[in-house]
Structure formats: structure tokens, C-alpha cells
Amino acid sequence: xxxxxxxxxxxxxxxxxxxxxxxxxxxxxxxxxxxxxDAPVISDADYDALKQRxxxxxxxxxxxxxxxxxxxxxxxxxAEGFGKITHKxxxxxxxxxxxxxxxxxxxxxxxxxxGQLPDQSIGFTAEPKIDGLSMSIRYEDGRLVTAATRGDxxxxxxxxxxxxxxxxxxxxxxxxxxxxxxxxxxxxxAKADFLTLNQRMAAEGKQTYVNPRxxxxxxxxxxxxxxxASRKLKFFAYAWGDISELPADTQHGMIEVFKDWGFPVNPLxxxxxxxxxxxxxxxxxxxxxxxLPYDIDGVVYKVDRLDLQARLGFRSRSPRWAxxxxxxxxxxxxxxxxxxxxxxxxxxxxxxxxxxxxxxxxVVVTNATLHNAEEIERLGVRIHDTVEIxxxxxxIPQILRVVESPANAVSFAFPKTCPCHLKTxxxxxxxAGGAEGVxxxxxxxxxxxxxRKEHLKHFVSRKAFDIDGLGEKQIEFFYDDTSLPIRxxxxxxxxxxxxxxxxxxxxxxxxxxxxxxxxxxxDAIEARRSIALDRLIFGLGIRHVGEQTAKTLAxxxxxxxxxxxxxIAIADGDKAAIEEMxxxxxxxxxxxxxxxxxxxxxxxxxMVEKLVAQLSVLEAEKPSQDSPVAGLTxxxxxxxxxxxxxxxxxxxxxxxxxxxxxVSKKTDILxxxxxxxxxxxxxxxxxxxxxTEDEWFELVG
Length: 701
Hints:
The protein is an alpha+beta fold and 701 residues long.
């Protein structure tokens, strides 16, 4: 009988912490593969299962929510080969629902946030979730000027020339359209066009494509727009970004406007009010799914009134007013041929199942992540077993169970030493209770070449130092080079000086480089000597300190000297410094502990000091001074009556305030509603400014 993963309710806090770390790293890898390279390495079923497991853990252990949690991330980095376009309005992703109960929870959460009873007075639109590539198309004075992919949600790839080849997208808008409008939607390839393309490729003796979604994404990212034009891409409009004026006051009304402007809109979109109507429409679309001319993987529900959308606002990576109701996964049976070990940046050893290739729903799958030794034991899988896999969409599958175990099946022995050439021992961190943790790590840390390389790859990644021409392949090259090595971040910024002193072994004389390419690399490195504070913090690769946490720390401390001083103080056990960082919104004990541990290691401090000596670190941007609370730290407590707590926090952040979760000496204002308890008492003891809800509204106008 197949063993299931340990229920979340049965996990200890230490076990949950270890699993959340593993999930954050694994989901980030899959986001990059899917969004950044159009080359997914796990299945939608596997991916969705990881996201669901992560969410369940975070709900059970809210204090363990990581700064680099998947809930804070959107898309992936911008691919090389295209210019970049910064979205004036971020392109966020949607939260997912997988059951009717998830839909009910979503609808009820909308009513709760708005402080209303669920009386079916709020309307929702329901539309098919197209399995394509998200696109934002900007029009100025009626003319198409730019088009960009989602990218990482903030910056996308400039694919304007390619989008102009899509016949369904108007080059001009009719008279009366807003002066500025960004139309957002999905570029996709129809099933029939995909089959025709594959037939043509096969007839020409060329490799065929895997599925319409990846083919559409790859077609749109062709550097030659003529190739894009030959692929018969299509488009559905369903949203908007930057816009100078809104021509309608509802989501459904905006869709009708798009249709009038000449954009294709999905005919299955409906405006509904009750939960039963939403689920009923989902079931109808699900039954018609196989006969639709395009691929879909769910139904999206959105609050219809735009003023309510504005009140509901956004979380860090998704709107509160929308959710994607995903379709169930597909299943198949194949053989597990091998289990390999991968070593990550933090030294975590992850087993990867190699599968006998099998096509599931039009996608060939060959790999599955097995997470850890406990997962292998729970599943009871052995090499040569026949296993049932599950997928939904484009990525690798999740192994559900063992179907058959032949006589030659071989149990997998988890390695006791790292697969690196040092063969350093593999260790398991102890939980708070002294038990062994789930994750096994290489004990070599920076001595382990796998970890060193992964740290350097992280350092030069798009959201860190983003050095053009210095990606993963180049890090591999320089790390292994004996005459011009890069073994730590500071080595990057001494590369040119060392190269000039290297005589005949100059970089321009190496294979793959020349005068121009070498100079471009040196220029790109030089351009990053001046670096934003949050990018430096993120680039250090401190465990639990993701992109969002790095921004929070940069915003709170303002400059590198303050960050460094606080980190050293935390490493020395300074209670005031620990309390100050812990009080920051979205910062928890795990982050504070990780910062202290990182800066408590002499070799880390040496690495950081050598790096910072090569840099000019910019101060964090100061908050807008347009509101009376800009730059102030605000804490909300008690039961607010005029708006919900979430709505109050969102308002404060829009006004430039920093919202903290606990009271400290750094708190500027405590807003206390009825029932305020210990936070109000502490604020009064510290002599802090306290306001009622009415006084808060009077202050902010």
C-alpha cells in the first residue's frame, strides 16, 4: 500500500520549517523553467501539489512563513536576447483553487474583507483560464507602441515586433479610446494550428513540438519576427494595466469595451452572483474542455465591480479579488529507471526520479522530484518499479503510488557523503526537540563546489546583481578556470585587473571570447559596482532572505552601514537589535536567526567585506512625502470598525507607511480599535503615539 506524505497537522515546527525551505527552493526552480525558459521540468500536477503543500504548511505555521515564500513570487526572470520593459502596473499571478470548497472560501473571503454578509449582492465574472503566454500591449494615442511578456511581474521581454505579426491584435484603437491603455491577455496557439505545424515539421524531417503552450511561448520569443508570423498565434484580451481613464466600471463592462475595440474576447465569459452559479459554470466548461479549439487549465473568477476590486487590493503577488479554479490532474503509468542526487545552494540534497519517457496529455515527462529520503520511504519506491504519475499541464509529474515492484527492483540508499569530489559528510539538522530533521545537507558549505557555484549563480542572477554576460554557464567556466578563477563574489569585480595582469592568457584570447565580448563583460561588471541596497542583501544568499525580505530590510534600515551594524549586533545576541528586526512586517524569527547565523561566521564576514570594498552601495529609496504618514512605522491592533485590518494595512502602505506586526521603540503610531490588548499596553508604556480608528482617518484624510 502506498504511503502518503505525513499530514501537516502531524508535523513538528522544525519539520515544517525544513520542508518550507525545501519547497521554496524547489518551486523557484520550476518557476524559472516554466516562465523563463518555456522548458518545464515538472508537471502542473506536481507543481500545484507543491504549492498546495506549501500553503497548507504556512497556514498551519504562520510564524514560519518565509520571505522567499512562493506566495510572494510571480513568473520568472527576463530571458536574454530581448530588451526589457518595466510594467507600470505589475503583472501579478493568481491564487489557485482546486476544489469547490476553495471557491466557497474565496467568495466568503471577499465578503469578509469588505465587511459584508454573503448575500449574493457581489457579482463575479467567470472566464476560461487560457493555457498560453501572458502579454501586456501598450497603446498611446490609439497606436500600438510596445508589447511585453509578464517576465518576473515587474519587468518583461520586449516582443513588440513579434506581437505586431498577430493578426487578431489591432495596430490601432478606434477614436475615443483612452490616450494611454495597456491591454492584457493571453497569446496562444489553437489546437488545429499546433497539429498542422507538427505535421509540417515531421514532413520536413524536423523535431516536432511538445504542446501548444510552449510552442506559442517559443514562437513569440523568436528573434526573427518572420518566424513568429508563420506560427498563426492568437490572442484573448481579458484585463488591463496602465490606463489613463476607465471606459467602464465593471470587469464585464471592460471586456465588452475590448470587444468593441476589435480585440478577441472569450465567448464563455459570464457574469454570475452565487457560489453555485460559479461552480456550475466551471463544470460546464470542464465538460466542453476537450472540444474547445484551444487549451485551458481552469476557470478564473473575478469580482466584477472595479471599485470593489480597488478596495480589496493586492497581496504581494496576487489580487484578493480573483482566483483560478484549476482542473484535475491527468494520470499515467511508467517505470522509474534511476534516482539521482542534486545539491542546491544551501547544501540540501534533493533526490530526482528519472522516469521512462511517457506522453501524458501531449507532454513527454521524464523526471519527478522526490523531495527527500522520507518521501522515498513514504512512497515505497525502488528503482525499476512501475509507478503511477500525475500531471496537469506542462510540467513533470508527481509520483502517486507504486503499481508494481518487479523482482529486480533495487532500494535506493541515500548517500552519506556529498556527491562532490570532497565527499564531505551529509548531516541532518536537529529539530528544537533534538530529533533529526528531514533535509540532509552537505556539511562542506563553501568548501563544497556545488554550493559555491550555486551561491555565485545566485549572486549574478537577475534579481540580484543581474550582470549581463555572466550567467550560469559563465560561472561554471570561471569557477573551473585556473588562471582567472571566480570563487567568491569579490573575484567578479577584480576580474578585469587580474586579466590585464595575465599576459598571454588574456580573456580576449580564450575560446568563446574576443575583444568585443570580453570588453562587454567587463563593462557589465563595472556597471554593477553601483548597486541597490536590496539587490546586495538578496545577492548575499542568506538563507530565508528572499527578494521581498531584502526589500523590506533595505527599506527599514536605509543604507548598508545600518544593515551591517544591525546584522553584527544580532549575531552578537543584542536583544534590542533582534527585537527591532523581528518587529518588521513580513520578517519573522527564521529570518532574524538566519541573518545572525550568517554574520556570525567569520568567513562570511570576510567575504562580505571584500565584496563591499569593491562596490558603491546606494541608499534605499525614501518613501514619498506626499502623505502625513509617509515613512512612519504603523501598527494596527484591536477590532477595526470602519474597515478590516487587511484593508487598513493596505491603505497605510499605499500612503507610504511601513506596517509592522509588533510594537517596539521604532513604532511611530499605534492604531487601536476596540479590544486592543497587550500591544496597546506596551505602546503606552513606551510613550508611543496612539490613535483611535477615527483619529487615524482624520490624520490621513
